[in-house]
Amino acid sequence: MPYKEKEIEKLYYTIGEVSEMLGLNASQIRYWETEFGELRPKKDRKGNRLFTKEDIETIRLIHHLVKEKGFTIEGAKAKLKGGTDDAMKKMKLIESLKKLRGFLEELKGQL
Question: Which domains does the chain have, with CATH numbers?
Fold first, then answer.
C-alpha cells in the first residue's frame, strides 16, 4: 500500500494569519478578545497571541453574529452564553448556501 502524505495543519495561528484568513483587522480581534470570555488565545513568551482552530471558529461566529446578523456586542455575548452549537450550525449552513449560490451563479454565467 503506497504511503499517502498527510497535509500538516498548524496547531496555532498568529493574529496576523487569523486576520488575513478571516478578512478582519487585528485590532478588531483584540477588541473581541476583551469582550468575549469564550475567546482566550494562548500567548507565547513574548506575549504574541496564538489562536487554535477552535478560537478561529469562535471569531468566525462572533463576526457572523455582529456583522452579518446585526447583533450588538451584548446580544452576541448572550447568544454565545446560551451555547454556541445552534448558532454555529446556522452559521455553517448559511456559509454553505452562499457557496452553493456562488457556484450556481457561476454555472449560469457559463451557459
Answer: 13-110 (1.10.1660.10)
